[in-house]
Amino acid sequence: MTDNTHSTSRTGPLAGVRILDLTSVIMGPFATQILAQLGAEVIKVETPDGDNMRHVGPMRHPGMGHIFLHANAGKRSIALDLKHPEGREAALRLAERCDVLISNVRPQALARLGLDPASVAACNPRLIHVSCCGFDQEGPDAARPAYDDLIQGATGIPWLMQRYGAPEPAYAPTTLSDRVTGLHAVYAVTAALYAREKTGQGQAIVVPMFEAMAQFILGDHMAGLTFEPPQGEAGYARLLTTHRKPYATADGMLCVLIYNDKHWRSFFAAIGEIGEAQGLAQDPRFATHGARAANIDAVYAEVARILRTRTTAQWQALLDAADVPHMPMNSPADLLTNPQLRATGFLHDSVHPTEGPMHAMAHPTRWSATPPPRTLSPAPQLGEHTRALLAEAGYTPTQIDALLTQNACHAATGEPA
Asked: Which residues are catalytic?
């Protein structure tokens, strides 16, 4: 791995790895946030205007939006104009000292900037070049732009939402495509680092959103279309029944999943004790996993009817005693005070040097030998580390001043000279 003072002072399984992060918005920053949480040093390269998510509120101060704060903790920010020859040269000098370069700039645009895999490999043949883009570059859509909404639509999520019962096609209310693809980028980086340890060679990797989400959706919903000729239509019936949702109780809502045969036997025994079994234990529609799957609408509708007969607290006690899985229906606000998330330290309180008190998230995994750091440095101001990073790349103070004067880079106000 790269030997430098800043990266080797970190802890975690990726301690000593240095990543040049040319990503913005959500997909790429989410991926590099995870890599930072695993101990990698991440150098965030921003345009002089900054990552777009800096400007999406709510926020306390301009340029420090809430999503940016959560996706960029633990990183250092350098602001470069990559279209300026000297800005590009600075990026290449940083790349010489890095293990990974990751971007979500379209590959065609990256090539115009002279930061394509071949150009970067010329200065650092051990570098792993990861391109997160909309589409696999071997297909006809290679140069098309892609955003989360577009990829959700192209892979069938709005169709599935309407099939599920929404009044009209709708996107999932989370940046699902960005975050799923970001996870693909994380394992691509870590697997490539392992391969380089064995071969000594860097390589170029393409992580396409469309193909990543197509795998995600078709894994559940190819269904009968798996076979030729088809053995039914698309769609996993259990996920698409309109009764698959939190159940109304007598006084609230409760999430319940009676899944395997043991759960169903326990559930029937429990409701039998309160006089509501009504012969369901002998109903052939409930007898086996296959029978329940074939009659999933009726099965879930019956559960919904039964759950309305008791309060949430009564059902929680009953289902706990029967060892039937259930959880409360939480809101994001509920998660902030969740005892599990607080006890494990996943959610914790921090104080940002400019943004003040805030809630922060740790990495969700736990390691016995190389634990990731539980807290990270705060998300940086735009260009907060420009001078320091250029100095690490070998620039003198006079040269850095010249770059700033030429607008090849930007430094945060008040950054040390």
From this structure: 178
- How long a stretch of residues is the chain? 417
Tokens of 351: 């104080």
213-221 long-range contacts (CB < 8 A, ≥24 apart) are 213/151, 213/152, 213/154, 213/155, 213/176, 213/177, 213/180, 213/181, 214/155, 216/155, 216/180, 217/155, 217/156, 217/157, 217/160, 221/156, 221/160
Structure tokens at 56: 């999406």
- Give the phi and the psi of residue 224 in degrees, each rounded to 5: -65, -20
Does 5-216+343-410 match 247-328 in CATH topology?
A: no
CATH number assigned to the domain covering 5-216+343-410: 3.40.50.10540
pTM of the complete model beyond 0.85: yes
pLDDT in tens, the chain (417 residues): 554 445 446 899 999 999 999 999 999 999 999 999 999 999 999 999 999 999 999 999 999 999 999 999 999 999 999 999 999 999 999 999 999 999 999 999 999 999 999 999 999 999 999 999 999 999 999 999 999 999 999 999 999 999 999 999 999 999 999 999 999 999 999 999 999 999 999 999 999 999 999 999 999 999 999 999 999 999 999 999 999 999 999 999 999 999 999 999 999 988 886 545 567 888 899 999 999 999 999 999 999 999 999 999 999 999 999 999 999 999 999 999 999 999 999 999 999 999 999 999 999 999 999 999 888 999 999 999 999 999 999 999 999 999 999 999 999 976 544
Give the CA-trace dihedral at 299, 304, 305, 310, to 10 degrees.
130
Cα 312 vs. chain centroid, distance in angstroms? 32
Handedness of CA 133, 71, 155, 234 (dihedral sign): positive
Domain spans of the chain, in order of start: 5-216+343-410, 247-328
CATH of 247-328, one of 3.30.70, 1.10.10, 3.30.1540, 3.30.2310: 3.30.1540
Q: Give the angle 67-70-73 at the CA atoms, nearest 5°.
A: 130
Strand segments (E) across 58-144:
75-80, 100-103, 128-133
